[in-house]
Design a protein that fits this description.
By secondary structure, this protein is α+β, with helices and mostly antiparallel strands. The protein is globular and about 70 Å long. The two termini are 34 Å apart. The mean pLDDT is 93.
Length: 605
């Protein structure tokens, strides 16, 4: 993986030094090499994390074809690169490297703006067509790789991370009222195509565009479609198994050390089982990692969403598969101390210690491995969340993973939050998402509900998890691949009847049936357990002290907060605030992040 950024202006030469500065603040994403391309209209900068063909894959990469020159800055992995290269060679492509960067560039040269449709992978890239005087850019279908942009006057700027764009003093750090509502009500989720900064936008997943002397043009190159299903339970399981095996196997290709995240839950176990078999056939042993927190064994409390810890299951499956397993334990001090670095990585306050712990774990993984495979995106596609099968969660006119949204907004002063107005705005956005969800006239109520839950989960909940995974891992130069985020899997599973996906009332029954030959029953039928959080009361004590210390200094947050409500939270029992993971300690930690972000990132309102 890498970072990309650029500035395009066909009226006035863009600032090469500024673009270099933009790239320098993303060096963590590509610590192995950096380079820049510039001419009178375009500057492209690239930081490289070498994964494939380390010797020959420098960027920005240039190719001349039939007297016309093209330049690419690319971030990602293309998993159908081998067969795509063969097709491109038949159309006149001449490859000089083994890098998929060159595959993407030739795809644009041969297929033009239709090229993203041919790519199976995770990507964000920009191609400068020098002859046509235009820049084409695209983002992968699921939004695994980031792409942010700003259009000011005649200048179009883009970057892998928001911090790069903010190096330009002409780009405002102002947060709009809509942005504040997203922070207060939805964090870490943001509305698709937006950021919390009013001057910076996000290229939506499955979207591409052009910038030329005619201006900016954006369009979708892929959309999820509702189609009739042909087959039965057995057919669905076989087709799903084939798609999963192909997606996972394709993502094991790497010229640098590769591992998997293994929690012992269904999703990570499916991926690890397939990768371990690939390694066994090569006579190699796969490395796996599971995550734990200091003091969790002594403090763990079972809940509906997290009924049991992971340790026993991860170690059990590692032995069953014969992997080289490491349990990484995050010290409470590290988890608390890295809260601020997690804000720097994400560019706004995110998921508190859920972020900072992953930041720590990835820094440890980097000591031995550069590439990891992870189980994100399965719950969103196969129906693992309760809002897939509990209608009362889906039909309350607000995002179902947000618990008590008005109570959450009540942490802030009424004149700041404007909570009633914000709830109305976001509720309206929620209804728009539901209305745009593709369905069929013959869908049953349960099938229609599952489609809506999928659209919501894939388009919003999942993108926030992918953003977290990308920023926290790339902070240490670790590339995390997510095989479940293969669009072919989503396209197929979306149209499988709900009674097959939820057979006998079992969540993700389709996935379990598809992979029953790969896993022992102890793992195959284990109840869902999410990414772990700390249960140690010392952590809550530590972050409470951190927040109180920051508020004593004054600052913007101290003026925005309702002290009476906050005191009630600090003195009260734990309760859930977001999804399945963020309860009171995480809310307190998030407020620490929020205060740091306001101060250190010079945020304006």
């Amino acid at each position: 993986m890498c970072s990309i950024c650029g500035m395009i202006d066909f009226k006035e030469k863009p600032d090469v030094l500024l673009c270099g500065k933009m790239g320098s603040v993303m060096k963590h994403r590509g610590p192995d090499a950096s380079d820049i391309f510039s001419d009178e209209a375009v500057v492209l900068q690239h930081n490289r994390l070498s994964v494939m063909d380390p010797q020959n894959g420098g960027q920005p990469m240039r190719v001349t074809y039939r007297g016309r020159e093209y330049v690419i800055a690319y971030n990602g992995e293309i998993y159908n690169s081998p067969e795509l290269r063969k097709n491109l060679e038949r159309h006149g492509a001449h490859f000089r490297t083994e890098c998929d960067t060159e595959t993407v560039l030739w795809s644009y040269i041969i297929y033009g703006t239709e090229c993203p449709k041919s790519l199976n992978g995770i990507f964000a890239f920009s191609v400068y067509d020098i002859h046509e005087r235009k820049v084409f850019f695209a983002r992968d279908r699921m939004g695994v790789k980031p792409f942010f942009y700003n259009l000011s006057g005649s200048t179009f700027s883009f970057a892998s991370e928001i911090k790069a764009l903010l190096q330009n003093d002409k780009i405002s750090r102002k947060v709009s009222q809509e942005g504040l509502w997203q922070l207060i009500f939805l964090t870490p989720v943001t509305l698709s195509g937006t950021t919390v900064f009013e001057s910076i936008e996000e290229l939506k997943p499955a979207m591409c565009g052009e910038f030329s002397e005619k201006g900016l043009k954006l369009w979708d190159y892929w959309k999820l479609e509702a189609k009739p299903f042909q087959g039965d339970t057995v057919d669905a399981a076989e087709a799903t198994a084939d798609l999963l095996n192909d997606a996972i196997t394709r993502q094991t290709v790497s010229d640098v050390p590769l591992c998997t995240f293994l929690s012992g839950g269904l999703d990570s176990s499916v991926i690890t089982a397939v990768v371990a078999e690939c390694y066994r056939k090569k006579g190699e042993v796969l490395s796996t990692y599971s995550f734990e927190y200091e003091g969790n064994k002594q403090s763990f409390k079972s809940t509906l969403f997290q009924p049991q810890g992971d340790d026993e299951f991860a170690v059990y499956l590692s032995r069953w598969l014969g992997t080289d397993h490491t349990v990484l334990t995050a010290p409470n001090k590290e988890v608390a101390d890295r809260l601020l670095s997690a804000v720097d990585a994400r560019d706004f306050p995110g998921q508190a210690d859920i972020d900072s712990s992953l930041l720590y774990f990835c820094s440890e993984i980097k000591k031995r491995h550069t590439v990891a495979l992870s189980g994100e995106c399965s719950d969103e596609i196969f129906g693992g969340y309760p809002w897939f099968y509990r209608p009362e969660m889906l039909y309350r006119d607000f995002f179902p993973w947000i618990h008590e949204p008005m109570e959450r907004a009540g942490v802030f002063r009424r004149d700041v939050a404007k909570a009633e107005e914000g709830f109305k705005f976001l509720s309206n956005e929620y209804r728009k998402i539901i209305a745009d969800c593709p369905t069929l006239p013959g869908d049953s109520d349960a099938m229609r509900q599952s489609r809506i839950a999928t659209c919501l989960s894939v388009g919003y909940f999942m993108t926030s998890l992918l953003e977290r995974k990308d920023r926290m891992s790339m902070w240490s130069g670790v590339e995390v691949r997510v095989p479940f985020a293969d669009h072919r899997i989503l396209e197929y599973v979306y149209n499988v009847p709900w009674e097959i996906k939820f057979e006998n009332g079992v969540e993700k029954a389709l996935l379990r049936n598809a992979m029953k030959d790969w896993l022992p029953d102890k793992i195959l039928w284990r109840k869902k357990s999410p990414y772990p959080k700390t249960h140690n009361p010392e952590y809550r004590k530590r972050v409470t002290e951190m927040l109180q210390t920051r508020l004593k200094k004054g600052g913007l947050l101290s003026e925005m907060i309702d002290r009476n409500v906050l005191n009630g939270i600090l003195e009260g029992e734990d309760k859930t605030w977001f999804g399945q993971l963020m309860s009171t300690p995480q809310l307190i930690a998030w407020l620490v992040q929020f205060d740091y972000w306001l101060e250190d990132h010079r945020v304006e309102f």
